[in-house]
Queue: 3 jobs
Job 1
Amino acid sequence: MSDAAIIDGKAHAAALRAQVADGVAAFAAAAGRVPGLAVVLVGEDPASQVYVRSKGQATEAAGMASFSHRLPAEASEAELLALIALLNADSAVDGILVQLPLPHQIDEDRVIAAIHPDKDVDGFSIANVGRLSVGQPGFVPCTPLGCAMLLEDRLGDLAGLDAIVIGRSNIVGKPMAQLLLARNCTVTIAHSRTRDLAEKVRRADIVVAAVGRPHFVRGDWIKPGATVIDVGINRIEAGDGKTRLVGDVAFDEARAVAGAITPVPGGVGPMTIAVLMRNTLVAAHRTAGLPYTGI
Ligand SMILES: NC(=O)C1=CN([C@@H]2O[C@H](COP(=O)(O)OP(=O)(O)OC[C@H]3O[C@@H](n4cnc5c(N)ncnc54)[C@H](OP(=O)(O)O)[C@@H]3O)[C@@H](O)[C@H]2O)C=CC1
Ligand SMILES: Nc1nc(=O)c2c([nH]1)NC[C@@H]1CN(c3ccc(C(=O)N[C@@H](CCC(=O)O)C(=O)O)cc3)C=[N+]21
């Protein structure tokens, strides 16, 4: 059998961002203002700084207003909650993203709960989690929504397919499982206590790996022809003192068996940022009382 098709997340993300930019121009003409996204970073984690910078760049490239807020690593929870209250009340801000993880002195659940659900473009609040699980419109977390877009683009209707999601975090695994269920897949959610994982993965037409362990999913776990979505972002030693990014899937092995597979980098990561732009545009439409007709 020939090698898997490589799903070009970077190209998909560029196409989505171009659509969002068109939508921003139309919104501005109708509403007399541009959508705004506020990104809050607490502390100086270098990887988080890179993500926050690329989110700001993408926001501006889409024609939206970008508001960047930095708090020191030792900032108190009260300081962060006060900033969120200001952003909730600011009519120029349609979306609020607080970069996770947060320093240990800050309770993430309390911070997420403080973000107004209509500005929660990450889709992490209880209100938006509930809406997703009962099938009402709300905000869906960017990473799993980006994965669902890649899957539908590749496979069309997902109804009846067997899917396995490896990982059950609130930001990736659980919402991914909800999205696949909503698309009529038969969904297995695997985690660290799952027995016979390889055997369960072998039954799946769709494999979503969100584990956080480099090369965790092996090629001989993959059913021939399956579609593999690798969410993992792991920085490993590449020898000679350098590092490189790899996913949760042993890419070279899986590629020889799968029907299609996302690379790391250039797969799910760029989609996450493009969907964040899309969610911010949706938030602006809802706030302005305008219908949103885009993707
Ligand atoms: N591309 C992107 O845009 C994004 C990428 N990521 C990346 O995705 C990965 C996952 O992120 P996230 O969901 O936040 O991670 P978490 O650490 O929150 O969750 C990891 C999940 O993997 C499960 N797990 C751990 N070990 C095993 C094992 N041996 N067998 C089966 N399951 C296991 C855990 O199970 P248990 O619950 O039992 O502990 C847990 O549910 C990371 O690499 C992260 O960097 C994350 C967000 C966005
Ligand atoms: N509130 C919140 N929302 C998030 O959505 C969120 C978060 N916190 N904390 C961290 C994770 C991680 N995440 C990524 C986004 C883009 C890439 C991305 O663009 N990756 C590039 C590579 C980037 C590089 O080279 O470092 C790629 O995969 O091609 C990766 C990871 C969003 N997250």
Note: The longest helix spans residues 9-31.
Job 2
Amino acid sequence: MVKAYVHDNDASVDFREDHDTGKPVSLERLEKIGLIYRKFDTQQDVDSFALERNYKNRDIVNITVDSFPDEETMMSKLNVFYAEHLHEDEEIRYCLDGEGFFDVRDPFNEEWIRCRVQKGDLLVLPAGVYHRFTLTSDNFIKALRLFKEEPKWLAYNRPEADKNRYRQEYLAQVGL
Ligand SMILES: CSCCC(=O)/C(O)=C/O
Ligand SMILES: [Fe+2]
């Protein structure tokens, strides 16, 4: 079961730390904002789930200190992932090893909901949801990224993306 909780918004502490307010977030609340969570132990289960949802492409990312030539390059990549953004396609992320934090902005009250994904955790992020990603203090994740269309990573940052068509559609879908 994924651990999800309200983020404490403490910008004075490294974003890879837990930032746990102690306020848990239920799967029902995640579903209300359009997220789907599944725990899958086998690749076959992931493949069937992806096929049901018409996913065509995938890649594997390994993000760790060794993936970068130096600390500065790593931090600049992490800062890109940590900027609040949306994508125009629904996307699946499945944790193969290590762990990471997906923070998802609750559109009803603007709280950040932090999901700690670990081996076997799968998240579906709907198109248009504002979110960000970071490694944890372990500095390692191996993740399968599944794409409905081409395997490209195009991020649209807030606030410019507020007027994006997919943002508007997302808000309508969740009832706002
Ligand atoms: C662990 S997957 C890499 C991050 C990513 O794909 C994403 O969409 C971050 O927002
Ligand atoms: Fe993203």
Note: Residues 61, 81, 93, 100, 131, 133, 141, 143, 145, 153 surround L3FJYLFB (ligand 1) (CB under 6 Å).
Job 3
Amino acid sequence: MLGPVNHIALAVPDLAEAMARYRDRLGAHVSAPQVLPDHGVTVAFVECGPTKVELLEPWGDASPIAAFLARNPTGGLHHICHEVGDLLAARDRLVSEGARILGDGKPKIGAHGRPVLFLHPKDFFGVLIELEEVKPTSAEA
Ligand SMILES: CC[C@@H](C(=O)O)C(=O)SCCNC(=O)CCNC(=O)[C@H](O)C(C)(C)COP(=O)(O)OP(=O)(O)OC[C@H]1O[C@@H](n2cnc3c(N)ncnc32)[C@H](O)[C@@H]1OP(=O)(O)O
Ligand SMILES: [Co+2]
């Protein structure tokens, strides 16, 4: 059920500064920032192969990363995102096994235009996990 790591996310206090540091010190290509009001973040991706680094800055008054940054004011590792082929099937199986889905349990459209869900960090050894639906291609199915 669990697929490759799509991205590893860092919460950062200043997105422009984080983007510049990845670009200038590490020579990375960084995507343009994208505001995602539904998620309460502004995001940019460090393009470094199939697994990306996602840089997150809080957006708006109710950002889900605000408390995390208050506890980690210089930033920190926020979540790991795995791809899954069927997000609703993965959700239903996880719920039946007692895992907690964050929010209202319904997928939202994430930064890549695909449905995503989050699993409670207390159910996965203190790590927040995001699941992103990536449908298998017909060759893989
Ligand atoms: C860009 C769009 C999308 C994509 O396509 O990639 C994204 O990635 S959006 C990313 C931002 N969105 C989310 O994170 C949504 C899911 N997150 C949440 O709902 C909340 O962040 C949370 C996980 C419920 C935590 O919210 P918070 O306000 O921090 O709650 P608490 O302060 O009560 O913390 C509870 C408990 O959990 C620990 N915690 C919090 N965040 C993390 C974390 N990122 N990793 C590990 N542990 C975390 C926190 O320390 C508390 O622990 P205790 O003190 O021991 O109770
Ligand atoms: Co993410």
Note: Helices lie at 15-26, 66-71, 87-96.
